[in-house]
Design a protein that fits this description.
This protein is α/β, with parallel strands linked by helices. Helices cover 40% and strands 18% of the residues. Helix 1 crosses helix 7 and helix 5 packs parallel to helix 7. The protein has a 7-stranded mixed beta sheet with strand order 3-2-1-4-5-7-6, with helices on both faces. S-adenosylmethionine binds next to helix 1.
Length: 282
């Protein structure tokens, strides 16, 4: 039997568009902090974005950091090149599985490593090696910023559609050995790997009422993609047609509740930490 692809989303044009729109919403949810304010951007010369997808975060970071006086280096990595931009400009892109060590040329090279949205891709047993691989490519004193939409989002009380999404994602991801509590896992594993000053932060889109309509649309997109996909792949329904019908029923319920003013928040989880400047000899 062929090995089942661990990834849960398509890699076509429509999915690339979904990722790019979602990126804008996530950045606004975080109060327009592409890079967490505790990270001193004046010290950042080289940036890696792992599981980069379309490279949208890296492209925005390169625009926001670039100044004529300082030369910076940007590198996006992903297990698949299918969604890399056609015109990457000065940004480098490479195929790399995050769960295996990077080529030596990348070790100790980056001031900042960013990772986002791997909850539906990584198995629970992958996190330890993954964090070790990120550690290896950071310079001493370099920063990690890892962001997820995970269990924390869907366990927000008072939103019936979240109850169903939580049930389905918990069942579907656990069935595949994945970890729904991804940001908590990243927090634990990065501390265990020796990162210092590790913090796990939560941004709530309800802080910005202007985001309400866009969040409603993003959740609709998640129901039509991840929810329908996991219903089918974990055997909760028998056919793609039934999965799609169930997803549309949930979309209808979501829209009905939103129209009544019960519009759910999106919670973005962010873990930041720093590789020590000096390695401990213990
Ligand atoms: C949901 S997308 C997020 C893309 C991007 N980080 C963003 O936030 O827009 C997840 C990405 O992770 C990539 N991916 C999945 N498993 C991976 C692995 N083991 N190593 C590197 N990339 C991986 C997928 O190919 C996909 O591009």
């Amino acid at each position: 039997m062929a090995t089942q692809d661990k990834y849960c989303f398509e890699r076509n044009k429509k999915e690339s568009e979904r990722l790019d729109i979602q990126h804008r919403v996530l950045v606004r949810t975080s109060g327009n902090t592409l890079i967490h304010p505790s990270i001193p951007i004046e010290e950042i010369r080289s940036v890696a974005d792992i599981a980069t997808g379309t490279g949208i975060w890296l492209q925005d970071v390169s625009k926001s950091l670039d100044t004529p006086q300082i030369e910076r280096y940007y590198h996006g990595f992903d297990i698949s090149s299918e969604q890399f931009p056609e015109n990457p400009g000065a940004i480098q892109f490479s195929v790399q599985d995050l769960t295996v060590p990077f080529p030596r040329e990348h070790w100790g090279r980056y001031d900042l490593v960013h990772v986002r949205l791997l909850v539906a891709a990584l198995e629970e047993s992958d996190y330890q090696a993954t964090i070790a691989n990120v550690y290896d490519i950071l310079k001493p004193g370099g920063y990690l910023q890892w962001e997820e939409i995970d269990e924390e989002t869907y366990r927000t009380k008072g939103y019936p559609v979240f109850n169903e999404l939580h049930r389905c994602f918990d069942y579907g991801l656990t069935a595949e050995g994945k970890c729904f509590r991804a940001s908590a896992k990243v927090y634990e594993e990065s501390r265990a790997a020796g990162f210092v000053g590790v913090e796990r932060l939560c941004y709530n889109s309800h802080q910005n009422p202007d985001l309400r309509y866009e969040i409603e649309e993003r959740l609709t997109a998640i129901i039509r993609t991840l929810y329908a996909f996991l219903l089918l792949r974990s055997g909760q329904v028998d056919t793609a047609q039934v999965a799609s019908q169930e997803a549309e029923k949930l979309v209808e319920e979501h829209r009905r509740l939103c129209a009544q003013g019960n519009s759910p928040p999106l919670k973005l989880m962010r873990v930041v930490g720093r590789k020590p400047l000096h390695e401990s000899l213990l």
